[in-house]
Design a protein that fits this description.
With about 375 residues, the chain is mainly beta. The protein has a single domain, classed as 3 Solenoid (Pectate Lyase C-like). It is built from 3 helices and 24 strands. This is Putative polygalacturonase.
């Protein structure tokens, strides 16, 4: 697979790659299956934690290598003619459910410190943890990919671009037990210190369902900063949230210039949610004074049918979310008692039903939010 060398440990699993040579592709409709034998953790080496996380995401110390793992690659192609890569994640989920997991689970596919990556025309199934994780990468295209996991499988995010730039995710279908797509950039003081943002990211023509999490999300790990993200032409159903921005005190960083357009949702509990206070930190050295800066969130052309709650927009006291702009947002089928809930946010709305909260009803004409807040500039200071 690809123009990076992929080597296997212990027969098939896991693959790892470093350098630049060789290429290979799965046959038409090929199925690649991780061992169905009981997990032998010795076959899954422990590797160093990512520097922007400081430790494994689930447990202190290192983390298990991913099934397919690449580092320092250039011109990588991972593709197949409707082939399938099955991570056989159930055994890993059971370690999590039984609280016997000693190190953070590996991903199904992780590529880091790499450039010019194409992942296409494949089905990824049953990831132990996050499914596709490009981290510290640039020029990434993920297209025509299907991702499947049981809807109760823990932390089986679909695609998580992390501290990466120039990423395009398009024409993908995802069913998972966590966010379908979540943009990330490091965790608390470790992400702040590394200061490697995610930027220039496009997600389009995405469809799927996740009963516990969001269709598209920002964070909660966003300490290196996230900017210039466009998500459009989305179809989300039977999910906990449609669009979600997750932050917390201690995260620092910024979320700036996020455009979300043309979304259809059915039976999504909370169609739009900005949340705070995840109370999820790597260790006790996080800085409660490190608050994120959120400005310039543009949401337009949204139709949501039969949601349980109106939007929940919760900023952080002392660090309100500013420049939240919504236009042509229609939420149908809500109970009459369902009202917008807004704290520590400000912005504009235009053609929004039902009527939004007072903080989002500025008496200044939005002019599509003052022409996208006038050439918004990133200021992470």
């Amino acid at each position: 697979m690809g123009y990076g060398k992929l080597q296997s440990h212990q027969q098939f699993h896991p693959f790892s790659g470093r350098g630049c040579c060789d290429s290979g592709f799965p046959d038409h409709n090929a199925v690649v299956i991780e061992s169905v034998e009981p997990v032998d953790l010795e076959d899954w080496p422990i590797i160093e934690p990512l520097p922007s996380y400081g430790r494994g995401r689930e447990r202190l110390g290192g983390r298990h290598i991913s099934l397919i793992h690449g580092d320092a690659l250039t011109n990588v192609v991972i593709t197949g003619q409707n082939g399938t890569i099955d991570g056989q994640g159930k055994m890993w989920w059971e370690l999590w459910w039984n609280r016997t997991l000693e190190h953070t689970r590996g991903h199904l596919l992780e590529i880091k410190n790499s450039h010019n990556i194409l992942i296409s025309n494949l089905t990824f199934m049953n990831s132990p943890f996050w499914t596709i994780h490009p981290v510290y990468c640039s020029n990434v295209v993920i297209k025509d990919v299907t991702i499947l996991a049981p809807l109760n499988a823990p932390n089986t995010d679909g695609i998580d671009p992390d501290s990466s730039t120039n990423v395009c995710i398009e024409d993908c279908y995802i069913e998972s037990g966590d966010d379908l797509v979540a943009v990330k950039s490091g965790w608390d003081q470790y992400g702040i210190a590394m200061a490697r943002p995610s930027s220039n990211i496009i997600v389009r023509r995405l469809s799927g369902t996740t009963p516990t999490c969001s269709g598209v999300g920002i964070g909660s790990e966003m300490s290196g900063g996230i900017s210039n993200v466009t998500m459009e032409d989305l179809h989300i159903w039977d999910s906990a949230a449609g669009v979600r921005i997750k932050t917390d005190k201690g995260r620092g960083g910024y979320v700036v210039n996020i455009t979300i357009n043309n979304i259809r949702m059915e039976r999504v509990k909370v169609p739009i949610r900005f949340s705070r206070g995840s109370n999820d930190h790597p260790d006790d050295r996080w800085d409660p004074k490190a608050v994120p800066k959120i400005k310039g969130i543009f949401i337009s052309n949204v139709v949501s049918l039969n949601s349980t709650k109106a939007p929940l927009l919760e900023g952080i006291e002392g660090a309100p979310y500013e420049g939240i702009c919504m236009k042509n947002v229609t939420l149908l089928g809500l109970a009459p008692a369902a009202k917008w809930h807004c704290e520590f946010v400000s912005g504009f709305t235009d053609a929004v039903f039902p009527v939004s909260c007072p903080q989002m009803q500025s008496n200044v004409s939005s002019s599509w939010c003052l022409d996208h807040l006038g050439n918004l500039q990133i200021d992470s200071s």
